[in-house]
Each structure stands twice: as structure tokens, then as C-alpha cells.
Amino acid sequence: MGVAKALKALSRIPPTKRNNQVKAKLDELIEYFLIHRLFKKSHQPDEISRPGWLKLGFPLMYQTDILELSEILTDLEVVDPRMDEAIEIIRNKPIDGKWNLENSFNGKMTVSIEKKGAPSKWITLKAMKVLSKIG
């Protein structure tokens, strides 16, 4: 999860402000997630590394999921067939054109954000953004 958040932070640096070290680290972190197909184990690539990463949530706080990782990569204009399985999972999740909140910190925050198990405006927006960039 820390690697995902490092990638997210570095990806927010405008391209014109990225030095060679930032560019190299971005490339390294992107490749790390692509090698793992975003959610697979290193040494057992047929197995899911973190099953929770398949449950879409908002806000994610310190956690991540395949939607956040896909959003980061598509924002960086990464196009790679190793993303296909994660994208297909996202593509197959909507019910009546909306994605549900599957992972939530509700009950652990001062204010609940949407309802777990119900359609989520935030996740739907993010999923539609990712899928529109993929085509």
C-alpha cells in the first residue's frame, strides 16, 4: 500500500516539474504494479495478493484498490496489456450503470461517506473516468 501511495504522490508532480530522479522512480513504481498486474502476487502470479484491493472504496485513506491504481496509471497515460485484467474487473462491477461502495471506513470517521453496498457517486465517477481513458 505504501508503494501505491508513493506512486500516487509522485504522479501528482506536474510533468514539467519532474526531475530525472522522480521520472526514474515513477517508471520503477509503474513497472512494479504492471509486473503484478496491479493485484497479483510476485511469486505466484495466478494468485491475488490482496483480495481487499478488488473491493472498491472511497475514501481509501492508507489503503488502495485496483480502481485507484488504474486511475493513477491512466492519469500517467500508461497503456499496457498487463492492466487488462484489473480493468476488466472494474468494467464488470457496475449495477445499472453505477458502481457500489464495497469498502468503507464508515463508523471509523466522524462522518459517514455514502452507504456501503449502495451505489457510490465517487466510485462511479472514478470508474467512468478510468474506462473513458482506456476506451
Tell me what the structure shows.
43% of the residues lie in helices and 0% in strands. It is mainly alpha-helical and 135 residues long. Helix 3 (66-75) crosses helix 5 (121-134). The radius of gyration is 15 Å and the shape is globular.
Q: Distance between the terminal alpha carbons, to the nearest Å? A: 27 Å
Query: What general outline do the C-alpha atoms trace?
Result: globular
The secondary structure category is mainly alpha
Rg for CA atoms:
15 Å
Helix percentage range: 40-55%
* Mean of pLDDT: 95
Q: How many helix segments? A: 5
**Main sheet specs:** none
- Which regions have little confidence, pLDDT < 50, spanning 5+ residues? none
Strand content: under 5%
Number of strands: 0
Order of helices and strands: HHHHH
Strand-helix topology:
Elements: H1 2-11, H2 20-35, H3 66-75, H4 84-91, H5 121-134
List descriptors.
mainly alpha, 5 helices, 135 residues
Task: Summarize the structure in short.
This protein is mainly alpha-helical and 135 residues long. The protein has five helices and no strands.
